[in-house]
Amino acid sequence: MSFTYCKSCGHKNIYAVTPPKFCGGCGASLGSVSKTMPIKKVRRTRVAPEEVDSEDGEDINEIPNIGDFKFSVSNDGLYKEKIKLGQIVPNIDTIAKEQLGDEETQ
Q1: Residue 30, number of CB atoms within 10 A of its CB
Q2: What are the φ/ψ torsions at residue 34 (nearest 5 degrees)?
Q3: Rounded (to 5) percent helix, strand, coil in the chain
């Protein structure tokens, strides 16, 4: 958007297409409209941050490859019975057979 200042009161008159004829602040005539001030575009370049490895291993600069991720879980003897993954997450084939069987009976 363009703008011009009033010579009487200093009000900044902003306009889009045609310059105003009167000041929006004091109503004085802007018959001899001063030139609009061009907006200076400043080009800023980004500086890459220095890559510093944190001591605790919580680097956020990259995503680690977890293709060979290994882990172990300990229950500290609280549960004597072992839980298998199939007990928690049902097999997809079992779910599909159950759903197909339900649809056939309806």
Answers
A1: 20
A2: -70, 160
A3: 15, 10, 75
